[in-house]
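Job type: complex structure
Entries:
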Amino acid sequence: MRLLALASRNLKETYRDPLALGFLLGFPLVFMLLFGAIFSGDETPNYAIGVIDEDNTPLSQAFVDEALAQVPVLEVSTYDDTATALRDLKFGDLKAYIVIPDGFGQQVNSNWQGDKADITLNITYDESDIMVSEQIVTIINATTRAFAQIEVPITINAEPIYIETEIDYMDFIGPGIIVFGILIIIPTAARTMVSDKEKGMLARLLTTPTRPIDFILGYSLGLVLLAAAQIIIIMLATWLLGLNMTGNPFLAFFVFLLTSLCCIGIGMVVASLTKTENQAEPLCWLFAMPLAALSGCWFSIELMPSYLRTFANAFPFAHTIEASRAILIRGVGLEAISYDFFFLVGWAVAIFALGVILFRRSMRS
Amino acid sequence: MTSQNVKRAKAGDDFAIQTFNLTRKFNSLVAVDGIDLNIKRGELFALLGPNGAGKTTTINMLCCLLKPSGGTAQVLGYDILKQPFKIKETIGVSPQETVISEHLNPQENLVLIGKIHGIDTRELKSRSQELLETMGLEARAKDQVRKFSGGMKRRLNIMMALIHNPKVLFLDEPTLGLDPQARRAIWEYIIRLKKEKTILLTTHYMDEADFLADRIGIMDEGKIVALGTSRELKTGLLDILEKHTIVIHAQNFTQKVISEMRTRYAEVEVTEDTMVISDKQLGFQEIVDLLHISGVTVSSAYTKEPTLDDVFLNITGKELRE
């Protein structure tokens, strides 16, 4: 009863605060609309890429003709040798060229049969245009994954290959934007808790029979409900803006919800270490913004130096983006994302435990 | 049970709050310096003192927010160190700062505290309705409290301490920063609560302590420097000072009359239409008659009582600033 009373109060305090609510929902939506507007117009980017098919199997041909050719932003030309492609790249006629190595078809086939095998593609690109080259790598990466891991009937040789997903920009950016929205839970959680500490509400409630655990669960429950609402709204918005949800949206929702638990835990840790909202808020942003970038919320992390990727992978968000892209774009199930999933579970448990210990301590002082 | 514990337990039957050498230090600062208080059940006890005297620290220890550095206290016989949750179930606390959930309406604020205390929904509804009516907030019961005036918020702050019908009420500076009208409204409500509950009130307004309290403990630098009813404290001062004062207002004090009075009494001060006479013993009727015979038209005359500020000044050498 105490827990529910506290959770209900925390929920009302946030959703009745137009500024807090606007921030929680509006900020990621603005980003999404911005990206959506940038990449949904008539003037979509058009990247010329070359393909050298050294595998030369029906699968590699299907990959070129059905998968790559269907990506709206790519203009694909085939080459017989790398020297010509390299010349065109140097002259600026191409932004990149892909060499499909011998064995590609076999690798894809193994994946389709359920045996996980690495897919090897060699991409050479014009790195003078960093953003474009990065996008091309990201697009090809996602397209290949979609092609290789998709569930198709065994009669593939008899039927033309059915490409279920057409990859467009919203598919890449969608999960990242959702994760960015979830990251905003960190300052929201910290602000809720620190504000109660700063304004004396925590002290007032501590003169009642409320136990510290009631507070922690009360805050968490309120924030989880808020996060759930936020995730649903942002997922719906990304879907409306063109995100193809091939996989199970409920599984993706659960992955996002786990991430929001991590964010609440981080918020709790920040709230324990700070005394005022003015201290907590910048600290949260200092943490959240670089992590959003490093985790790939706005652009791919494929090109980042490996030490930065290692750093980003120590936090939940890169895993969420990876897992949610796999679910939403490639349509995989829990089994395929089990590593990322259990990483998130472990992280949520650990950060919550740390948050509870620190927050209890800060309540006593 | 040791003899001291037996004594404490027996005393606990009569007293709602007892402190035993209660001390709190913050590093080298001694905020509360070994105070011993016995507050009777149903009594309204005021801790009066300037800011920083240790009043709030005392309350914070009694409502188990702060652990004492030394000594202990009992509230309704429960020890603050050993049974904090027993105490928290029986007390209501209105903190010095107005602490309410700004985006909730008054009813929701009251329900929050009520539910935390385990009151069932039906009872909570009727109690909150009753409190809102008593405090004059029923018309605004559904408005978010962030739109309320300071006085309304303050009233709600107190109501939140009362929703679960506590036996002991702690009111920390209940009228801090309010205008005279709002203060008066809160005083009237506190007076209604007298006898029903044991109330420990802190204030740095001497008129508040004077008007509301059954007994007053004057606090300075962490110590209780004087204790008693308002009358006892003031009378005690008169006895110490051995000085009574009468103030007379009249239009026509002549030099002759002033000289005459100065020969009779120890101190006579005259400013325009006011004469202030002080001495060890003063006869009110005798002075008025004397002035009348001398042709002075007395418009008013009264015996000046010492204020609690005078008491504080006499004990500490400092003024109790409001």
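Summary: The longest strand of chain A covers residues 47-53. The first helix of chain A runs from residue 2 to 15.
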